[in-house]
Design a protein that fits this description.
- By secondary structure, the protein is of the alpha/beta class.
- It folds into two domains: 82 residues, Alpha-Beta Plaits (2-Layer Sandwich); 216 residues, Rossmann fold (3-Layer(aba) Sandwich), CATH 3.40.50.
- The structure holds S-adenosylmethionine.
- S-adenosylmethionine binds next to helix 5 and strand 7.
Length: 373
């Protein structure tokens, strides 16, 4: 897609439950030329060369030439590699799950990219005996896909799938969850950051998505902006069935508001788990209302204040996330540079070859994880 700039690379996460990067370099990527940057991988779209580069931010991640079909490879079929956009790998990596975190909840799991990523990271670190990943998925149909993916990735032994279960209806104080130390939240969102989706025009980008703590700053100001033709009107239906014709911009704002209130509810629910000390919150949306605004509202909530939740500041993040230059929108963070710096963003048009994405992590100190059952 010309509007997306250079062709999007194929991002491949090597599933550490089943393989290693070295093994994949010798097999799936045999014959590919190794190049040092993702820019060169994207440029290979015009030369037809088959190239790869090892990602510098996320461990076990490889960028390969656009257009190469990996779905026919033995590694894909066996679950040794997983096709997952770089930005979509940020949440599990930023959450930094460790055996001492106890049980983990993935609150919104299907199709399971982040559930299996959590399992892969824990596998490398040594999964503590008896610990589990609870994977909630409200939609029964999507839960079937989750089940398949978890099995294919070899993470079924440590994952307890809650098919059809609404995370918002779980009781955080249930004995079953008393050992949950970390939660990953990746709730439904507008999907406006997804590559190839054009229902969100560029002019909805936050006005100043910028790095607050690094000289290596990315702003949205230097991105090419293109105003699309006037969108058609839309119809909003209220609770009584009354219809109102609104502009598609009004319909979008109304949809975003509803999504943001659902996203905040999920986040606050997660912050209530008694033994939790880490919670990541992510969306594949580019809208501040679903991102920084939700983080800020949660931070200012009585619950977060009472329980000592704060954002995981940039300088405390895992190396690859600390070094990632694109950060939150400082205006949407009420001018709070620490919160904006803690927010990790990805932009789909900035030449880094990723989808539009957002993630922030909440942490608190004063908890002892109690034994799971
Ligand atoms: N984390 C997934 C991945 O990386 O593969 C993608 C998750 S998708 C953005 C959001 C998912 O959350 C959808 O499958 C949706 O059905 C599910 N969901 C939405 N509300 C939920 C709730 N209250 N409880 C559990 N799952 C929910």
């Amino acid at each position: 897609d010309a509007e997306l700039g250079p062709a999007h690379p194929r991002w491949i996460r090597v599933n550490s439950l089943k393989s290693t990067v070295d093994e994949q370099l010798d097999t799936t990527f045999k014959g590919f030329e190794m190049v040092p940057t993702v820019e060169e991988v994207m440029a290979s779209a015009s030369t037809g060369k088959k190239v790869i580069c090892l990602d510098g931010n996320v461990p076990n991640l490889i960028a390969a030439s656009p257009g190469v079909d990996f779905t026919r490879t033995a590694a894909y079929k066996s679950g040794a590699i997983i096709l997952q956009d770089k930005a979509s790998c940020f949440p599990a990596y930023l959450l930094d799950p460790r055996p001492e975190d106890g049980d983990i909840i993935d609150a919104c799991s299907a199709p399971g990219n982040k559930t299996t990523h959590l399992a892969g990271i824990l596998h490398e670190r040594g999964f503590a005996e008896g610990r589990r990943i609870f994977a909630f998925e409200k939609d029964k149909h999507r839960a079937k896909t989750l089940n398949k993916m978890v099995r294919a990735a070899g993470s079924d032994k440590v994952t307890v799938i809650r098919a059809g279960a609404d995370f918002l209806k779980t009781d955080p104080n249930s004995p079953e969850f008393r050992g949950v130390g970390a939660l990953l939240l990746d709730p439904s969102c507008s999907g406006s950051g997804i590559v190839g989706r054009d229902d969100t025009p560029e002019f909805h980008l936050p006005s100043a998505v910028s790095s607050t703590t690094s000289n290596n700053t990315t702003t949205s100001k230097n991105l090419k902006r293109k105003r699309p033709p006037s969108p058609p009107p839309a119809v909003l239906v209220d609770d009584d069935g009354a219809e109102t014709v609104v502009s598609s911009e009004q319909a979008l704002q109304s949809r975003l508001k509803a999504l943001a209130s659902f996203q905040l509810a999920i986040l606050l629910h997660a912050l209530a788990f008694p033994a939790a000390t880490k919670v990541s919150y992510s969306t594949c949306s580019i809208h501040a209302v679903e991102n920084e605004a939700v983080v800020l509202a949660a931070l200012h909530s009585p619950l977060a204040r009472a329980r000592g939740w704060r954002v995981l500041a940039r300088d405390q993040q895992v190396r690859g996330m600390r070094e990632w230059p694109v950060r939150g929108d400082i205006e949407s963070c009420d001018g709070d540079a620490v919160v904006a710096g803690a927010c990790v963003r990805a932009q789909r048009e900035d030449g880094r070859g990723v989808m539009g994405f957002f993630v922030a992590c909440f942490v608190r100190d004063d908890t002892t994880i109690v034994g799971g059952d």
